């Protein structure tokens, strides 16, 4: 396994007590694999990504569990060690390309400094490679555009630059947190296709966070569904999309929007995700679940084998039952 | 670029004209220059003569026009109080003020900016907290109180430094410098500190606030995610992004330092333009006051221009717009 996350717990100490933003999150990513991560806003998707690259916003902190990259723990590394992993072994792509790039540096300079932070390259070599990367991500006239500033690019072009920045030190894993959410609908597919192509060429694994089930169905090898700081179902993409085992996933799939529209709220599921300080005992989904039964309200289900996937739902703890 | 400078200068013209009008109005409404210039026993004819000589019988806009024309050539007439050309008085006093302001500004930037960066990066360390608490005192302490405290401690009690004046000066052409003699430098220390403390604490707090703001941005987070070193993130990416607002305030502060040197100069009897201005106010010496007002507004205009040019260098987005 390339990345293994085991029992990850992230807490936020606040004035009103400690909030647990992630609780018992476990999953793994194989080399070259694309893991889709879906779930409502606030489910903990970004938090999971931030924990992996070691950039949780204080006071948020990893309070339990472990994260391993090729078997080596990276959740407790000293800062200097973690810096060698960021960019070099785990790249990141953020949501909004308009705010991700430093407005005062040329895109070329940002590429060059990133590569030189990790690879032994002379200025001239790094610049050559930077031009090569801009060509790779489809920036026209790359040799001239390399000296342009971020504001001189459109949103889509900027996200291409961000992708180049994420991949230029040739990491084994890229954490892409809603890389197309802020983009115009018409270019979202191009950006995803670009990311997918480059990752495949380099055998880079992707943790792809998105709201867009269409993108997941097309891009991901496996899918993790998050709810209230937990993974409630994880499995191969076809099984999760077609034969969801968790009632929440089933509702999510039923709500897949038409390809040309974005839907923020999931219309088919009544109610909303509980706030972190008000997660019900038992199954966190129980207040909204159409199949809820007594056990759900008292005991918390962990991930368990369910059909071809793993789901955290008591329906699968009964002989012969299914959602 | 040149067009930009010219356009900014043209934009500044109305401001300067308004200040000129105010200065001019001082002449007309505040004092009676004729009474001031005539001796007690002058006849009515003498008076009319002088009025004609000074052009005071002309309509106000003609007078104003002449005033502006003279001002452009640095000609402000004679001081009522000292009966010497105002331009000569100002030229004599300007070096003292400029040297004081320059030292205070240098102190402000060389100490204030690094402190701001430090307290921004290490926002939770106890050193930062201590510095911020102290800076609160600096912001709220009135300048004259601080000046008098310093005099009390370092001049009166310890006797290390002089409490007033400029010490010995060296004449370099028309410029009299206090920076080249020991007594001149010693005399400079207390007034410069007095003048700098307020601005210094202000800029420390400003740089800190900007730094905190910038360190929270996505592009800094992304720079970390790219694995850049802390040094390159803090002193390259972050610091450069704090510069634009800091330059604005620093520019205003420099203007403020020169303008508000009045208080410091008065406390230390520093023979600069501010002290001259206060003495002139006491004596209703309108020509000196008018010249001082115009000069200060000119200083602000020039500083603003400098600030705009610096923006232009720092921020590529502004370069693109122009
Ligand atoms: N600074 C913080 N303090 C307390 N709670 C936070 C903080 N930042 C995020 N959270 C909470 O953590 C949870 C997970 O957030 P996030 O990972 O951003 O969700 P997602 O990316 O799935 O939309 C949310 O419920 C959010 O309210
Ligand atoms: S455990 Fe119960 S409440 Fe939770 S999803 Fe399964 S059936 Fe619904
Ligand atoms: Mg998110």
How many strands of chain B? Answer: 2
Radius of gyration of chain B, in Å, reads 24 Å
Number of helices, counting only DSSP H or I runs of 4 residues or more of chain B: 14
Q: Which architecture of chain A per CATH?
A: 3-Layer(aba) Sandwich
Helix content of chain A: 25-40%
Please state the overall shape of chain B, judged from the principal axes of the Cα atoms. Answer: globular
Structural class of chain B: mainly alpha
Strand order of the largest sheet of chain A: 6-7-8-3-9-10-12-11
Structural class of chain A: alpha/beta
Largest sheet of chain A, in brief, is: 8 strands, mixed
Short structural summary:
The complex is a heterodimer of chains A (323) and B (322). Chain A has helices spanning 45-53, 79-85, 97-100, 107-118, 123-136, 142-145, 155-167, 185-202, 213-219, 237-242, 247-254, 294-298; strands at residues 3-14, 17-29, 34-38, 61-69, 72-73, 90-93, 173-177, 205-209, 222-227, 230-236, 304-306, 309-311.
Explain what you see.
- The complex is a heterodimer of chains A (323) and B (322).
- With 323 residues, chain A is of the alpha/beta class.
- Chain A has one domain (3-89, 171-258, 266-317): Rossmann fold, CATH 3.40.50.
- Chain A contains twelve helices and twelve strands.
- In chain A, the strands form two sheets. Chain A has an eight-stranded mixed β-sheet, sandwiched between helices. A four-stranded antiparallel β-sheet of chain A has the order 2-1-4-5, covered by helices on one side.
- The radius of gyration of chain A is 20 Å and the shape is globular.
- Chain B has 322 residues and is mostly helical.
- Helix content of chain B is 77%, strand content 2%.
- Chain B is built from 14 helices and two strands, in the order αααααααββααααααα.
- Chain B has helices at 2-30, 33-37, 44-54, 60-72, 86-121, 126-140, 143-157, 182-215, 218-225, 230-259, 261-267, 273-282, 286-314, 316-321; strands at residues 170-172, 175-177.
- A two-stranded antiparallel ribbon of chain B has the order 1-2.
- In chain B, strand 1 and strand 2 (175-177) form a beta hairpin.
- In chain B, 35% of the residues are buried.
- The model of chain B has no long low-confidence stretch (mean pLDDT 84).
- The chains are: A alpha/beta (323), B mainly alpha (322).
- The interface between A and B is medium-sized, with 32 and 22 residues.
- Magnesium ion binds at residues 45-46, 177 of chain A.
